[in-house]
Amino acid sequence: MSGTRILSWRGKRTAGVVAAVLIASTLSVSQPAYAAAVNLAPFGLASATSAENAGLGADKAIDGDPATRWSSLFADPQSLTVDLGAQARVSGVTMMWEAAFASAYSVETSIDGTTWTPAFSTTTGDGGTDEVTGLDVAARYVRLTGTARATAFGYSLFEFAVLGEFTQQAVSLGAATATLGEKGTVTVPVRLNKPADHDVTVHYATADGSAVAGSDYVAASGTLTFPAGTTEQTVTLTGVDDGIHENAESFDLALSAATPADTIVGPRATLSVSIADDDPLPFDGRTVAVDDFQAGVPAGLTAFGGDAASTPTLAAVAAADRPGAAADNQAMRVTYAVTSFGGFSRNLPTAQDWSSYDGFSFWVNGTGSGQTVQFEIKDGGADADHSELWESTFVDSFAGWRKVQVPFPKFKLRTSFQPAGAP
After folding, report:
1. CB of 378 closer than 8 Å to CB of 354
2. Contact between 251 and 155 (Cβ < 8 Å)
3. Cα 43–chain centre separation
4. Which of 174, 187, 142, 143 is nearest to 43 (CA)?
5. What residues are paired with 9 via a beta bridge?
6. N or C: which end of the chain has fewer CB within 10 A?
7. Of 360, 364, 289, which is closest to residue 319 (Cα–Cα)?
8. How many CB atoms lie within 10 A of CB 234?
9. Which whole-number Å values give the CA distances from 311 to 127, 139, 320, in the listed order?
10. Sign of dihedral through CA atoms 309, 312, 318, 319?
């Protein structure tokens, strides 16, 4: 009795299955029982010989989102490699091509990422969804190599699925990076590649980078336990509000010492945590008051709107309760019910040189409405109505007085509208 292994490939326009006998022997072999094949790629890491740009990286081909894609540079050959993070029994691969597909490509597998074994190749690829089934190989790495492009563009894949089941238990961080606010927390997922019939544990710990535990973040360490049958736990990291503006800082979170002994850590053993500094830049340059309201609303400050209801009403009111204010301090009250567009503007009659200043600041008496307030500066034109618009915003998420400080580098060129004649 002979044992035979069959490989099949199904392309987008293939009516049937093209089958070829790969291996035949005179020895009858009983195949082990495997669980139903699932897509193993999302647990892994993807890399490629190139990417068209940062937004079309290799990771987009295994993120499970059919709207994102990997796209290579416009040259042959190009490869996409998936490290599954642990050994698996691979039964097939599925490729969901974008319009820029491979007319010729090959698929290879490897245990160690160094020695590769051919699994499939074709010179008649027709795009769409290609399915290679009938594989039965032990692998940790799977590589797709395009050798001929169907278009003048690169190789472009919405999804690259590796079907099979893990034969080795692995625990991994569920993300490559994380961002932590100074005043907040971030939850980092930690995942098993498959459920176990026993408890699995792994140690986690933070380590200083440019950020320092105690002054920038709260050090964290401990042991996570995955009870039998579960596949996800989390680590919560906490920031420290130091009140000082600092350059970008980061620290690491690492996994180690998984148990039982045959459980490995990978493919993500470490991730970098960036701290989002929300402290304002120090304003230590020159200071000048563009407007004050001690004598009422300045004549040069005017309200505008798309209709009468949307045009704000401006009035000077007592504001002695502002922190640091004099007993007779006044502020401007803006009353509005904007239904189209509206605001107020201060057009300075002559061009200003702000190079010795850090930015603009103003006090706001918040109501906690949750509304986003937009403000902008005009720059570079022949006059104020023919200038570039640069914008920033703040959210009315507070009650009472707060000083809003916006350094010039934080303003962004407005993309929704620019005045006629703006540079």
Report:
1. no
2. no
3. 17
4. 174
5. 18, 132
6. N
7. 364
8. 12
9. 56, 67, 27
10. positive
Q: Would you call 342 helix, strand, or coil by DSSP?
A: strand
User: Of 67, 66, 70, 23, whose CA–CA distance to 45 is shortest?
Assistant: 70
Please state, in angstroms and rounded to a whole number, the distance separating the CA atoms of residues 72 and 291.
54
d(CA 293, CA 329): 8
Q: Which two tokens stand for residue 203?
A: 């140690």
Report cis status (omega within 30 of 0) of the bond before 227: no
Nearest to 96 by CA among 143, 129, 59: 129
Q: How confident is the model at residue 190 (pLDDT cuts 50, 70, 90)?
A: very high
More confident residue, 349 or 112: 112
Contact present, 130 and 95 (Cβ < 8 Å): yes
Amino acid residing at 159 = E
Contact 21, 4 (CB under 8 A): yes
Q: Give the pLDDT score at 3.
A: 36
The C-alpha atoms of residue 127 and residue 113 are separated, in whole angstroms, by 27
Integer Cα distance of 131 and 160 in angstroms: 10
DSSP for 225-284, please give it. Answer: EE-TT--EEEEEEEB---SS----EEEEEEEEEEESTT-EE-S--EEEEEEE--SPPP--
Q: Tokens in use for 392?
A: 């920033």
- Residue 264, number of CB atoms within 10 A of its CB: 17
* Range from 6-15, 77-86, 106-115, 321-330 carrying the lowest mean pLDDT: 6-15
CA angle 228, 84, 68 (to 5 degrees): 110
Residue-wise pLDDT for 287-302, tens only, equals 888 888 999 999 889 9
Angle at 180 between CA 370 and CA 225, to 5 degrees: 120
177-181 and 270-276: which strand pairing?
parallel
The pTM (predicted TM-score) of the whole model is: 0.63
Q: Which long-range contacts (CB under 8 A, 24 or more apart) does 406-410 make?
A: 406/359, 406/360, 406/361, 407/280, 407/281, 407/283, 407/358, 407/359, 408/354, 408/357, 408/358, 408/359, 410/359
